[in-house]
Design goal:
The complex is a heterodimer. By secondary structure, chain A is mainly α. Helices cover about 65% and strands about 0% of the residues of chain A. The C terminus of chain A is likely disordered. In chain B, strands 1, 2, 3, 4, 8, 9 and 19 form a seven-stranded mixed β-sheet that branches. In chain B, strands 16-15-10-11-12-20 form a six-stranded mixed β-sheet. Chain B has a five-stranded mixed β-sheet with strand order 22-21-25-26-30, with no helix packed on it. In chain B, strand 10 and strand 11 form a beta hairpin. Chain B is globular and about 75 Å long. The N and C termini of chain B lie far apart (about 50 Å). About 10% of the residues of chain B have low confidence. The chains are: A mainly alpha, B alpha+beta. At the A-B interface, helix 30 of A face strand 7, helix 5, helix 6, helix 7 and helix 9 of B.
Amino acid sequence: MPLSKIEKRKLKEKLQKDLKNQLRYQGLSDADRTELWNQCETADEAVDLLAAMPDTPPPSPPPNYKSRTDSSGSPRTPYQIQKQLFDKMSAFTREDIQDFINIAQATIAGNVVRYELLDKMNKMALKKHSPLQCMVYATKDVEADFYRDENAVRQWAGIIADFISNDIEQVRRVIHMLVNWKMWSKQIRLLMTAASELIVTEETKDHIALLDMVIRDNYSNSTDDALRFVVYQNMLTRPSRENYQCAFEILRRVNFLHGAYQRYIEELKEVGKAASSENLDLLHEVFVSYCVVGFGIQDEEKRKRIELALKRESDSHIQDFIEYINDPATSEADALKAVEDCLTTPQGGELIANVKAIKQHKAAIQDLLLRKLQKEQLTLNDRKKLCFSLIYMDSKKAVPKINQLLSQPRPDSEKLIYHFVLSRYDQKHIGKFVNEMLSYQKENIEEKPLLLIQRFPQNQDLVADAVLQRMQQIRRAYGVDSAEMLLAVRNYGAFMKSNSLDLYPKELDQLLFSYLGYEPETKTFNRGRCCSRNLDDVFHILDNVMNKENYSTRYMEFMQALFDHFKNVDKSPELRDTIKKKISKYSGIAPPGNDPRS
Amino acid sequence: MTVICYGIDLGTTHTVVIRSEYSNGEWKNECLQLPGCQELKENDTAAYLLPSVVHYKKDGTVVVGQAAREAVKYDPEHVYFNSKIGLGGNTDREHKAVDCAAEILKVCFAAIYVRDGENVRICISVPAAFSQDKKKEVEEAALKAGKDFGFFKDGNVRTTEEPYAAFLNIIQCEKEYYSNILHPDNPTYAMLIDIGGGTLDIITCGFTFDSDGLHVNFRGKSPGDADEFAGACFDQKLMEKFMQDFLTHYHLQPEKISDEVLRKLENQFQIYGEDTKKILCAREKAYEFTPDIEGIELPPDIEPFKLSMNKQEMDAVLKPLIVNKDGLESIDSCIVKHLQHNMMSFRDIDFVYLTGGMSKYDKIYEHIKDMTQRPVYRAKSPLLCTALGIATAVHVEIRDDKCVDYFPLVEASRAAADDASSADPEQTAAPQTEGADAGTVREIPIYIDAPNQIGAAFFIDVDGGLPVEIIPKTHKFPCPLEFCDVKLCTTSQSRIDLIIFEGDNRYDPDLKLLKLKTIHFENAIETGTPVKLSFKIDANKIITFFGSINGAKPIQFDCYTGN
């Protein structure tokens, strides 16, 4: 039966009284926390309720600074070495161990145990116990046979990788084992084989970076060849400067006189072949820089072999390539083939930047680029390369073809590129490009080529005008607090991040202020509008616009009002500090009364 | 007859020495004032606390105590604090933790020597949570430091586990807490939580008074499930808060500051964190200090400021370390874990006794009280409680298989025991006061069940199998050389490794790794040579392992051998 108004009021009063009492001890019981949420419809409302209570201690956020030293003053590593073989999340019973031993024996006997193993793992997971440490520990009981069987190791590693998927808690379990189970090299090999199959996602990227660090720190010097090779594979699997450097360091130490190196070189070749152009560039770059310090004269032979393994077919200097195209002796067919080949290699980016230098066979090359652009099977990156080549070649032929592409159903990201290309040829199209950019729904608004508009200074005022017009239009049509306005402000913030101040129309100031619910006359803000999320959006833009010259005339009053607003009503000291910092930065004076404790 | 004993509580943050003298049929305890302590009034406990901080000065001299603590602010690179945490491990720093412990003990030994010469009994505390290697290094430090004063000539250092010592002290000296809840027939169960500077030890025991004396039964396979989780972690949390405030004030980003500067700031804030905690636990309203910013490049337009913290802020910062949230380690999670390990619940406990420096913190007291719903008592002198127990524990010796006689000074103890058996137990608790005179104690015999059982089983790693048990948890100590029933073979020509684990059984999720032990051979030995494993355990529960290669004389692990 629903509560009557009086009952509700009484409950609220009681709650307030109880909460106050608990807050004095800095703690809310679970029951009262639940009741508090039931009373309030939003988190803000709950916070307001707590803040409204007299004698409530000021909210103090937990420190987010992470110390570089441990409690004895020694440098701290990002991972902890512990005496405990198994961490808290990995409880198990003798029966669990026995079950995994049985499955391991079945694996050695040649059975496919995928579902059996996953079933057991899931059963443990249901009890909130991670099965990873238990199952890897259980393999000790049959380790001689299990680890001799490469198929068994691969099968279990694959299942472990699948189980981990993008669950950071499971990555932590693996890190615990890698840090604390160094004495069990066979089990570590299984874990690293699994680790090499992990897919980096947005959720796991930080933890996998830590996992890589643990592998580099603890195992790159391993004297166990089987283990060292898995470390090497891991390092090549996940591209990063540190990982590649570690891989080359392992290569440097491998004895090339005994043929063992061959599988290392083969692995490098494979990785080189499969790598994206960016990763291949990075691999080359790290190798070149590593050569300076890593390989001595005695390693010359080794260095050459690695160079050979990494050699790209199109490895030639781009200037030589341009000279080849411009050479009157080069036939049109040869020139076109060379351009086509070049565009599919990592050197393609360099070609685009130098495309203006092409003097011979220009028309034919433009045709080639346009033809390629119309192909379906192209990545967004390839399309960008082609479009920018056309822009640099100032190809008028591009316009009708691109218009044709725009008339077809294409992904938004692709269309945005075409609008940008068209805006280069036709000033009238700038408005269209701006409209598309401000209403762009995908998150890759920050794609670099889209931000290259700053390279065309003659159009900046037009872009600024178009932005203002479109923003005003959105305001009129949907309102300043609409989802459309939010999207436009966010996209524009991302767009402004790497663009110049000239792309910003001064008149937009007032619109952004009102986006935060600012009333210039009363110098107050609408509390609902002036939240940290909206403020972030606005500062993304204004951070690129505000400076010491324009601050006093355009922003001072607004910023001071903003500071006062957060000083009085907001409970987030970070926001207050951020605003304070900005005021100090641009005005040179810190606002008074900034510390609520004073 | 006069006997003089000393108990040294070698703490993570402070060290205390208690002198215990037996004469005219009674024991008298006294705190020793050490050089390096703060200069305070004699009845202030702090005057007897030697900060466990060592400063290795550039001119080669070594300073211990308050002066070393001050040096953190200007020479952090050469100051070692909380070094006890690093015992038994490797360090990247110039001096090892064992050397720092030896320097601190030297100060204690010098004061003891000046007072009573070399003919005294000394006992040093070790946390129950300490691993074998950590305990071993305390012994090594004591031997190294005691050499110059003629102590430990027989090479035997006496150590006692801290919570047991603290428990024995409260049973004797703070009886008024529990006298009214004693069960007449069944054992009374007490949980002792020793929250020190660097370690958290929890023990639970049942005890009964009868006409023979006090019978104690310690429960639990191993106390201190969460060692290295104590006061220093709280100081560090406060340090992180100060660092954040400091960086925010000067608009600095940590990644843009050199490691040297960060370390300088962190080290001084760690010390200020400790002071903050001490002052605010003493119910002061707020604490503030001006950070030393000499040599640190700061924005010129920002005024230097004082960092401050009030009690409420401190409570908020430290709360996650007290109250379990998101599965992170906290005081309450350690208590729950201890109970789970011993298959007990709060209902099995009659009262909780808090000791150690952190027991002064009201939030810990309140939370434990809320959580356990049991009477919670705080030691009268939490900083001296363990040291007093250690001084008393000097007399503990195993008389037979089943009991420990507290006072083996036969003539005196017999009389005392007779006296105690006829007396009202209430009267055996003597008053204890803070300060130089820590009180007099009347003795009663104490009988501890299975006092000489090692408590945890030990396992070794073997090729192709789960770890194998070599020492059962019921094994008695001390014990002479004993052979293990396990087949071992060398797997390399140059050495043999022994990987040792401690736990309940090999399926125990709480299995802990002890240090790797090795015998290095100077001359190559054929791989696969059989090795017979043996061990002995000393009176401090330290286990030493030996290997007999090809039937030759046993060689101690962790050594080179010419064989």
